[in-house]
């Protein structure tokens, strides 16, 4: 096949949902042996495009051509059989089955009994060896990190499809080393002639791995570019269709009265197996950033502070008075809010409307017997839809029909609507596009200026550096460093995260 002949092409691909034209006559092409990034704001139509390619959605109009021949995948199995495999952000495998079973599900070597199992395990081992992965394939999938699970999912998809691999936000919950590992796998597949479609909101990753990019805006094709001819600013402008507000800004630091009594004081609080006892003061108007690798104890810190995973030692005071934090209900009663990391498992109720999802925490806080008046609900929902630029035709739409990033924004609105004194945000900008990203950061700064205290967990260190008054670094379930004011730099955070365990023991705090 010549370089320019498309492996996979769409012509005039169109998909409409009630009230939304998600794809409007989109032409897209993918070559063999390239990584092609699909970019655009939240709701631009990226996921819809790949769902049409894989038969998860039926298109309204347009053609899909594989090596020049029209195809019409009816479902994802069908697409797989045609050569198109997909891996989503949430690994779609079975956690309680072994790695080998997951790899070969539905096509195990036929003979029953032990022989079959051994043959299956051998085959699974050989499959993973191609990706430089040598793990125990008899262990359950969920014994492994998300990165390994992703690679297992890729190995399965590629072994069944072998021509086109689609990755929809595969790196959203991976740390830096894991992304590097995944990218090695992706490069290997590309060099073997696969065509790879890569969706991500991390532009640095796009520049690192992609050969070409296609940009969508409001369901329409904006352009196709070689990555070499683009710089970051131009790419952002293409995605947004407008100039992004100045990225560098004065940091919100300073102005915290550290001599005043803290709003909250956590003393020796911890939970066995989750997070080692730590001391932490939270001041009025302060943003505390939490950095650390995935699984380091960041989320456990947040859960403990919110009463979601009760502490088994230590104590908490609020304005000097003892505070009981045995459950999220206690926390909410004390004016806390918590926007969790994983919108799918902890928070979004897909068949309820955007409005209902937004008022949920407020309603829970004031008790289900005292309904928030409908007029107030509408005001709140409309206000946050405007402030966070949540892309929805109206507040009554089921939230499950919004794009991933817009669901994330609605979840954030839910906690802002309760007007908390202390708000915990776990990865508030994950899956959110560059424009909305800047908005959320601006909002964090506004909130702390108005006196709210925030604890923000983020893997994006530049972001933490920009808005934090203080940064806590967590490693191996211990708070290992605390950086204040001018000492907060990405360099200092990376060093604290990476310091080898032996040395860390001596210098911890
Ligand atoms: N099942 C559905 N029912 C109704 N509308 C939908 C459905 N799926 C997507 N949409 C709408 O189609 C548009 C495109 O959504 P899509 O999920 O493709 O966006 P995206 O580019 O993947 O965004 P994100 O970056 O947030 O994941 C959005 O306006 C969304 O609300
Ligand atoms: Mg999407």
Give the amount of beta strand, in percent.
15-25%
Number of strands: 20
Morphology: globular
- Tally of individual domains: 3
The bound ligands are: adenosine-5'-triphosphate, magnesium ion
Q: Strand order across the biggest sheet?
A: 6-7-8-3-9-10
Description:
With 509 residues, the chain is an alpha/beta fold. It has three domains: 8-96 and 140-240, P-loop containing nucleotide triphosphate hydrolases (Rossmann fold, 3-Layer(aba) Sandwich), CATH 3.40.50.300; 247-335 and 420-509, Rossmann fold, CATH 3.40.50; 344-418, no CATH class. 35% of the residues lie in helices and 24% in strands. It has 17 helices and 20 strands. It has helices at 46-53, 76-82, 99-104, 114-129, 146-160, 176-191, 203-209, 232-240, 298-305, 328-333, 354-366, 374-387, 404-416, 434-449, 461-467, 490-498, 501-507, and strands spanning 8-17, 20-30, 34-39, 61-66, 69-71, 84-88, 164-168, 195-199, 212-217, 220-226, 264-271, 275-282, 287-291, 313-318, 321-322, 336-339, 422-426, 453-457, 470-475, 478-484. It has a six-stranded mixed β-sheet with strand order 6-7-8-3-9-10, sandwiched between helices. A six-stranded mixed β-sheet has the order 16-17-18-13-19-20, with helices on both faces. Strands 2-1-4-5 form a four-stranded antiparallel β-sheet, with helices on one face. The longest helix is centred in the N-terminal third of the chain and has 16 residues, at 114-129. The N and C termini lie far apart (60 Å). Bound molecules: adenosine-5'-triphosphate and magnesium ion.
């Amino acid at each position: 096949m010549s370089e320019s002949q498309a492996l996979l092409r769409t012509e005039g691909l169109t998909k409409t949902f009630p009230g939304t034209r998600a794809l409007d006559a989109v032409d897209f092409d993918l070559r063999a042996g390239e990584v092609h990034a699909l970019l655009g704001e939240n709701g631009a139509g990226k996921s819809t495009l790949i769902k049409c390619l894989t038969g998860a959605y039926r298109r309204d109009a347009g053609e899909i051509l594989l090596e020049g021949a029209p195809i019409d995948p009816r479902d994802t199995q069908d697409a797989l059989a045609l050569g198109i495999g997909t891996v989503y952000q949430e690994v779609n495998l079975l956690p309680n089955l072994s790695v080998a079973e997951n790899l070969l599900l539905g096509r195990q070597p036929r003979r029953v009994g032990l022989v079959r199992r051994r043959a299956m395990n051998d085959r699974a081992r050989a499959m993973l060896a191609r990706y430089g992965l040598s793990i125990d394939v008899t262990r359950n999938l969920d014994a492994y990190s998300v990165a390994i699970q992703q690679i297992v999912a890729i190995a399965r998809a590629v072994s069944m499809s072998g021509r086109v691999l689609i990755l929809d936000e595969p790196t959203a919950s991976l740390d830096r080393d894991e992304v590097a590992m995944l990218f090695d796998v992706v490069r290997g597949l590309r060099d073997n002639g696969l065509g790879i479609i890569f969706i991500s909101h991390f532009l640095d990753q796009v520049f690192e791995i992609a050969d070409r990019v296609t940009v969508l805006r409001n369901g329409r094709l904006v352009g196709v570019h070689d990555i070499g001819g683009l710089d970051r600013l131009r790419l952002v402008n293409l995605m947004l269709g407008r100039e992004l507000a100045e990225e560098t800004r004065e940091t919100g630091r300073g102005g915290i009265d550290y001599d005043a009594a803290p709003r909250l004081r956590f003393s020796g609080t911890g939970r066995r197996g989750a997070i080692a006892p730590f001391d932490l003061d939270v001041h009025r108007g302060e943003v505390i950033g939490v950095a650390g690798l995935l699984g380091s104890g960041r989320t456990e810190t947040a859960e403990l502070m919110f009463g979601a995973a009760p502490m088994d030692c230590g104590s908490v005071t609020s304005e000097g008075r003892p505070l009981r934090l045995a459950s999220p209900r206690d926390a909410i009663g004390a004016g806390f809010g918590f926007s969790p990391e994983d919108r799918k498992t902890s928070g979004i109720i897909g068949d309820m409307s955007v409005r209902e999802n937004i008022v949920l925490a407020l309603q829970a806080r004031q008790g289900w017997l005292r309904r928030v008046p409908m007029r107030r609900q509408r005001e709140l929902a409309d206000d946050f839809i405007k402030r966070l630029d949540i892309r929805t035709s109206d507040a009554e739409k089921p939230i499950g029909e919004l794009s991933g990033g817009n669901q994330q924004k609605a979840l954030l609105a839910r906690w802002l609507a309760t007007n908390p004194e202390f708000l915990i945000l776990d990865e508030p900008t994950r899956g959110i596009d560059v424009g909305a990203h800047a908005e959320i950061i601006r909002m964090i700064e506004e909130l702390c200026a108005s006196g709210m205290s925030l604890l923000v967990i983020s893997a994006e260190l530049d972001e933490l550096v920009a808005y934090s008054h203080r940064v806590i670094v967590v490693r191996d379930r211990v708070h290992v460093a605390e950086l204040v004011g001018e000492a907060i730099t990405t360099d200092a955070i990376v060093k604290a995260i990476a310091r080898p365990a032996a040395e860390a023991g001596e210098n911890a705090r």
